[in-house]
Amino acid sequence: MKKYILIIKNVWSEMTTYRLNFALWRLRVNLQLLTMYFLWLAIIPTSGQFGSYNQSLMLTYILGGALLSTVIISSRSYGVGDHITQGDLSNYLIRPINYFAFWFAQDLGDKAMNISFAIFELTALFLILKPPFFIQTDPTFLILAAICAFVAVFLYFFLNFLIGLVGFWSPEVWAPRFIFIILITFFAGGLFPLDILPAPLYEIFKYLPFTYLIYFPLKVYLGQLYLQQILQGIATAAIWVLILYLIVKFVWNRGLKLYTAYGR
Amino acid sequence: MVGKIKKYLKIWWIMTAKVTQTAFVSRFGAAIFIIGKILRFAFFLMFLLILGSKTHRVADYSIFQIIFVFATFNIVDTTSQFFLREVYRFRYYVVSGEFDYFLTKPLSPLIRSLFGGSDILDLPILLLSVVFIVYSASQIGNISSPFVFLYIALLINALAIALAMHILVLGIGVMTTEIDHTIMIYRDITQMGRLPVDIYREPLSWILTFIIPVGIMITIPAKSFFGILSPQLVVLSLFISAIFLIASIRFWHFALKNYTSVSS
What we know:
The complex is a heterodimer of chains A (264) and B (264). With 264 residues, chain A is an all-alpha fold. The longest helix of chain A is centred in the last third of the chain and has 32 residues, at 227-258. Chain A has helices at residues 2-17, 19-43, 55-72, 80-85, 89-93, 99-129, 139-164, 174-187, 199-205, 215-221, 227-258; strands at 49-50, 53-54. Chain A has one domain (2-258). Chain A has a two-stranded antiparallel sheet. Chain B is mostly helical and 264 residues long. Helices cover 76% and strands 2% of the residues of chain B. Chain B is globular and about 55 Å long. Chain B starts with a helix and ends in a 7-residue tail after the last helix. The chains are: A mainly alpha (264), B mainly alpha (264). At the A-B interface, helix 2 and helix 8 of A face helix 2 and helix 9 of B.
């Protein structure tokens, strides 16, 4: 356990070493958030409605989505593909560490750093913009939303890891990741709540893993789902985690048989 | 002068041919990138159509006017990316010391750094944008040729501002070696122009028009096409782009004077 805590600490040291880089990254994150915030503010007037969302709920969704993206989407495990294609994986295979746990610890370090900044930034934005924020007071919804976010962290980790494993078969690891980022941007629910999509499309989305990354935890937080729907959603997300874990394990084992440490 | 232009055109052509060959070394990667770009275009268009289906008008704009603005954004964004892709590779030249060779060759280092090879993978989006401009224009109706000419003139003006922004980024890169985030911050801000900037609240709308001239780059050309632009704004747009271009070139020369060639 000690070595994984050390990995988390290393991520922090690395991020604080390249301070300008990190500061500009956070600036970008906030610019993207403000773009969506002002867009929805323009679309829904104060007393207006958009689907099942009034202005307060929609802005809560967008700001909550920004915080949740920081918790779930921020990660380091995009480096798996580069490790494989550049032969750096060999260095880790011979060390007494679990390669999956190594990347998960890296992700945790990255998330912890981003969350600490996001809390500070969002507080500042709240004080400046004074948005009509919906505060959930029912502890049941709060606990269930936290559980959904917890499951989503694992869901994203395995999805992200799986994309990196393409490196065993092709040196072109960034092209599939480009598509992955686009899919996540639109279908995880960070830009808009997925239930504004046409009903047949939304019904399909309910069965895809992306839905459970940002949209579902936020929907639970907003208290817009019945308990049975929430439990069904958590079960679906948990099944996806299990399926993705098994796929990642299978692909990893197959990939290792092909791995030639090319580049080393 | 004509001879000089011919020389630079020839150099641009040769470098673009080489960059294109590199891009197609992995046909799989090239195909995935093109698909990704088309998906991103399609998903945002779908988002706009959903907005249109629920609100019919966004602020004072009809849905086809909104699509026209989005396609205009893509024309400006993609054309500048197509021609100025070398800016995205500039950091490597500075940190590796290769930039020194730009300075010793009988070529303008600025032109070499800006136009060192166009990205052919941007062409499909460029064509798609033109198709959507023509289609949405035909749906808006009431097209008059003076407005079309004014629109094209203001698009060229927008590209001049984009050029100025890229020169500014290069200058910052020479002085700080920070390019990747700076160029992405520019792109994140221009993303606000995917919709007309006057739908945003003040002072954001004003800032996006006159301080960070996203409005001048995208909204103003589109408004000229709709015939709802005052002549004063046309003159102001030309004036602002001239100021930006002159200031950015001066900044580039200032940055070059401070270049220490420390990496070489």
